[in-house]
Amino acid sequence: MTDMTEVGEDLYPIAILIDELKNEDVTLRLNSVKRLTMIAMALGEERTRNELVPFLTESNDDEDEVLLIMAEELGKFVPLVGGADHAAVLLAPLEALCMVEETVVRDKAVEGLNLVAAQLPPQAIVDHLMPLVQRLATGEWFTSRVSACGVFTSAYPRAPAALKSDLRLLFSHLCRDETPMVRRAAGQNLASFAKIVEPEWVAKEFIPHFHHLTHDDQDSVRLLAVECCGPLAQLSGKEDTMSSILPVVQKFSQDKSWRVRYNVAQQLTTLCEALGPELAKSELVPAFVRLLRDNEAEVRVAAAAKLSAFCKILEGDAVVAALLPCVKELSTDGSQYVRTSLAGVVMELAPLLGKAATIEHLLPVFLSLLKDEYPDVRLNIISKLEQVNQVIGIDLLAQSLLPAIGELAGDKHWRVRLAIINHIPRLASQLGVDYFQEHLGRQCLAWLEDTVFSIREAATQNLAALAQEFGHEWARDHLVPPVLAKIDNPHYLYRQTVLIAVAALAPVVAHDVLVNTMLPVVTGASQDKVPNIRFNVGKMLERLVPLLESAVVEASVRPVLKEQLEDSDSDVRYFAQQALTACDNKMVP
Description:
- This protein has 39 helices and no strands.
- By secondary structure, it is mostly helical.
- The longest helix has 18 residues, at 258-275.
- The relative contact order is 0.03.
- Residues 1-8 have low confidence and may be disordered.
């Protein structure tokens, strides 16, 4: 390597790069590669093409972290080598990176190749990109052939008509490669390639490729082939789907590998859309029922998650007859993950079934899941309550579900309690003020003394939403007195919650209630023995000042804050000063 002292000033950047890339310290090499863009800009376009890019082409024997960054940087190098006219020089280093062993490096190199290929001029496609794809697809080492599978989608649309058949032939060989990793890559890219070829080739060539991959003896190849079912069905006509794709799906729903069956569950809804409701009902419902009753929990989880989407394609009677028995079974499934998956979608069936079927078939399932021992199951049910209310009405909801909701309000898992709190305002608007006050009003106040801060904080926001929903008079009579009474609680955290609640309620209560009832409680807390309460007084007064008249601020707020400026606690003094600044700003005309 050239001695650094002999390098001219104009060669200094490339010399630094070469020196650091050869350094034994991987950190220095990483830092050097991260500066490739800066170094290329310093060198200029011509020297980047003639010196930097050739050097990078030869530097593919390094740590994976270095090569990964190099591949990422090269994908963005087109403007640095002189634009599209010279972009072909970047193909060589990216081709070299497509052959390394590390998968993430190859994937990033393929991504870079596709970015560069999109900017190549037409002649460069013929002269450089097509030979590159040919070399990768016929390379001796499997890594190059794996990478080749990801390049067809960028090469084919821009290839001359005479060369497109060659590309399809190369891909055909890769689908039948002797190495499973190559066949897996071909299966992974089959659907995306099929989307860009001319329509006539989908049935003539790509469906046969699909069939060949679905008969592979490797599970990993078959499960990737299954992912092509939905996209190929959308590209094919209904007849081709019925004759070529549907039998494969029906067969794979009973495949010996649970991973293959899992992927079938993921693809069924797309296939339903391609077939239409009548054919889906006759041809796919049996396969879907098998998956819902699969002996592997992972498959049942995937199938349950697709239940709502699948049912939307069918008519209500078909859902009741074929799928509701499975729903009832899944609601008592031995796997909590299956029940969680079901709980996330089962409420969405209510609008599809209508009121009578929902009451008869789904309501018992809802109640069962609401009492499930696992919190995630209960949370998923709670989050979709509105959909059931729209179907069965608030009266029946109140009779059947609200008792369960009352139990969940005191659930031992705080996230369940939080989910209930977040749904209270919506329930309140549907229940009406009298029913709500009788059945849930006391619980809303009890949350202010929860042991978890997030619950107490959410409870204060909930009270503000209720005050806005039910009006000033209701808040004055039913919220403000019990909230302020908690200021005498012996535990300072609950007294602090009262201050937070006052600040939350202040914008939505009547002004006279704020000034005459709530403000004195806040200012009185400035004498609390706990510093946390005293500095929260300053924080809350700062929020209240914009809501008060100047005369009230001067008479009731400023004296309290001035007194707090003499407090022994530094935090109390700090927040008092912040609040005083807010007072001063209010006085400025």
